[in-house]
Amino acid sequence: MQWKRMPLGPLQTNAYILTNESKEALIIDPGEEPQAIFQYIEECGAQPLAILLTHAHFDHIGALETVRTKYTIPVYLHENEADWLSNPDKNGSAHFPMVSACHCQPAERIIIGEQQALVIGGFEFTIFETPGHSPGSVSFYFPDDHVIFSGDVLFKGSVGRTDLYGGDQLTLFESIENKLLPLPEKTRVAPGHGFETTIGEEQAMNPFLT
What we know:
Blueprint: E1 2-8, E2 13-19, E3 24-28, H1 34-44, E4 47-52, H2 58-61, H3 64-71, E5 75-78, H4 88-91, E6 109-112, E7 116-120, E8 123-129, E9 138-142, E10 147-151, E11 154-155, E12 158-159, H5 169-180, E13 188-191, E14 197-198, H6 199-205
Parallel strand pairs: 3-4, 4-5, 5-6, 10-13
Antiparallel strand pairs: 1-2, 2-3, 7-8, 8-9, 9-10, 11-12, 13-14
């Protein structure tokens, strides 16, 4: 599996496009700039199978409806945020004047309700429930590729904020401690903002965790 990190929108939120040898693709957190996503997928000659949301904050869903409509693919999100896509107060877009309020309601949603293993096409991965930054935050772990897409839970040298709707600091640190840090140290962490890191690096160097 290969993936492309694409910082998009005013907050430079990382969308990720995952592709495999069969030219299948998964799209994680299409936050803004749908044309950039379309161009990359066209260059790869890939066929998108699904959109995966680490959580439903506005900067992670800004291009969601446009992308979903173009490819007619399902959207995976946690049940705790099932109503956030069309609620600007919950997804946060009502409180940030530099963006338009998000009112999207994809026709096909697949609700995640617990930690589970999933197979989508040729992709096999595990969904970890990692709340704290938001109630429905999840992380997508691909053990064969030694990578976890952590959304806004764990960053290089930092952790997610908890001052937005539904955030909870204690829950965030429990998620990191119980779900992410037990992974092998070589596991790469692909966060929702900023650059890639590893579990081992964060165990050793992250000032919020040491």
